[in-house]
Amino acid sequence: MRQSRMNPHRPIVEACFKPASGMFREYCKSLYILKLIYNILNIIYQLFLLSTKTLISLINSVFPANGTTVAICVVYSKSAGSDRTGRCMAVPGGRRKGEFVMLSNAQEAGKKLRFGDALLQEGLISAEQLQQALELQKKSGKRLGAVVIEMHLVTEQETAQILSRQLKIPFIDLSNYLVDPIIARLLPEHLAKRHMLIPINKVGNRLTVAMFDPLNIIGIDDVSMMTGLVVKPVVATQSGIQKALQDAYGEGTITEKLIDDIEGMSRNAEGSPADIDLNQDLDENDAPIIRLCNLIISQAVQNQVSDIHIEPSEKELRIRYRQDGILQTAMVPPRKAAAAITSRIKIMASLNIAEKRLPQDGRIKIKVNQRNIDLRVSILPVIWGEKIVMRILDQSSLKVNLEDLGFEPVTLQRFKSGIQSPYGIVLVTGPTGSGKTTTLYSALSTLNTNERNIITAEDPVEYMLAGINQVQCRPEIGLDFPAALRSFLRQDPNIIMVGEIRDHETAEIAIKASMTGHLVLSTLHTNDAPGTIGRITNMGIEPFMVTTSVLVIQAQRLVRKICKECKYEIRPRAEQIAQFGITPEILRRLELPHLTEKNLLFYRGKGCDCCNKTGMKGRVGVYEVLTMTERLRDIILSGGSTDDIRRQAIDDGMLSLRESALRKALLGMTSIEEVIRVTMGEH
Ligand SMILES: Nc1ncnc2c1ncn2[C@@H]1O[C@H](COP(=O)(O)OP(=O)(O)OP(=O)(O)O)[C@@H](O)[C@H]1O
Ligand SMILES: [Mg+2]
Ligand SMILES: [Zn+2]
């Protein structure tokens, strides 16, 4: 494997300093000059933080291979380094890591890490066998390790374990290890294959890489440069790595393999799932199901998916991920795995596995790559079994900075002036999954200071916010939103957050609370800000109650962002500009003084590896914020329509959802197609 990158005409260990030309020989006889060259190279190495590969090529250009040969080491552990071909060798005298050493003495450099000696010491082969192997090695040019395996003197496993002991690097048996394809694919396949290695785990900025040759410093360098992570090598067998590579990059992915395992399960998974007993040791037939469930979750977390859908149909089981707001099929396990997967998820969420006729809600707390992940689990009986939806709540990815959500500067100003009032009501609206909860949590964290008593009624509590009193509602025991709100008023709050207003009773108490000196924040499932007024009055709230209590109503959507790696500009045609209603007046309202109808551009993503060929990556919010003004009050009190309210709000300076999205398109954050997709039907 590694031979391919080495020049076969160049000696592998260049032990001594043998300058060819007579003049040069005279110079180099002096150790002083040698030391000088060494120091200069060392300074270059340290100063410019060169990669080992660059350093080695630098050395090779300073000392051309023909004629002048020098033993040179780049040290990467206490006692090991690599020579100019990148090959590992022993470095005497306990050096510092990253140091560049030039060995002038043949004896010093000749002390290679001897794999053969280790084989002898461990009594695995005789001196005679070693001799034979060394001869064969000379002929074939292969590694000694490979030769002794071919001669059936030792197994692959034994060789790897010897290497592990010798180098004090852990050994990993990949045949018992489930390599997460997402982690593996951090590296392009050709690189992994070239160096015979595979990334197997990532914690923070450390990437554990299973390597056939853990001393292949060029491989380590390539991986760390490619991923930007610190590489921690572990030893594995070549066949183990090959199999893992096949799983991760090949046709039959690990998921398909697991699914095959499930197909082959002897136990009939369609039988009663209630027979999985948590207290019993899992029998080996359950292992594929557990591994599959873990994989479904860890893959989703890795891909920054917001929801996992597991849905049975007549013939198959479909697993879909919602990523950046769009559902995509992730895998299709066999139908007969459905019952077992459902049971496993129920066990994880501490739900009743015997209950299959009623909906259930639960929560799973797990650790994925050292990150604490919460899953909000909802199970709904459907005609073909039970449909599971899991919302991924990743505390570490929660955005709680209002500035980071994507508000336009003016809009943010308006929203902030609402939440900074001492009393009144602020409503955040939008359809499911439009980011309402995130906005509310961000608003609360801005307001969360020592002088304020903040209390929330939520169903469910999604994220824990330090310093805020969060109450989990339990309608089944009578603790619904109205009940929670009533008791809050006796808790001397400054700010109250109610998860959602969906009925007259909640609306009435929330509005009353906001009129008696409290700031109330809540959400409503409506499409836009002006339409929210009608929704509240339809719940039976008097218009004058609305006009006196409401401070601001915000509506929002999430638009997908263009992938930064493959973004390109498009010069729009005049009719397109007209079609989107882009006029000088609009450009002025959007506060984009540098843009005119002549120079504006649209943007799009070509699609690359970074964005899964979609051209889009990540999301950002678009917002409209209606502020209650005197004139708006008059219109509402005189029974004006939603259209009247909207016109007035826009007159009062509100940017609409469409305008907010358009502004992001003109700034190159999103595409014009996305603006249309997300704000279809909006004004
Ligand atoms: N401004 C934002 N930019 C990018 N992503 C966001 C933004 N706001 C929310 N998200 C992400 O969108 C997803 C849905 O957000 P959130 O739970 O806040 O929506 P919601 O409207 O409260 O949904 P539901 O109606 O289901 O309660 C989450 O994964 C969240 O991290
Ligand atoms: Mg929510
Ligand atoms: Zn891209």
Question: How would you concisely characterize the structure shown here?
Answer:
With 683 residues, this protein is an alpha/beta fold. Helix content is 38%, strand content 21%. Strands 16-15-17-18-14-19-22 form a 7-stranded mixed beta sheet, sandwiched between helices.
Question: Strands of the biggest beta sheet: in what spatial order?
Answer: 16-15-17-18-14-19-22
Structural class: alpha/beta
Strand content: 15-25%
N-C termini distance: 62 Å
Question: Which oligomeric form is depicted?
Answer: single chain
What does the radius of gyration come to? Answer: 33 Å
Helix proportion: 25-40%
Q: How can the largest sheet be summarized? A: 7 strands, mixed
Overall mean pLDDT? 81
Number of helices: 27
The kinds of small molecule bound in this structure are: adenosine-5'-triphosphate, magnesium ion, zinc ion
Number of strands: 22
Global geometry: elongated
Low-confidence stretches: 1-21, 65-70, 104-112, 266-284
Describe this structure in words.
By secondary structure, the chain is of the alpha/beta class. A hairpin with a 2-residue loop joins β5 and β6 (206-211). α13 (254-263) packs antiparallel against α14 and α21 runs antiparallel to α24. The two termini are 62 Å apart. Mean pLDDT is 81; it is low at 1-21, 65-70, 104-112 and 266-284. It binds adenosine-5'-triphosphate, magnesium ion (MG) and zinc ion.
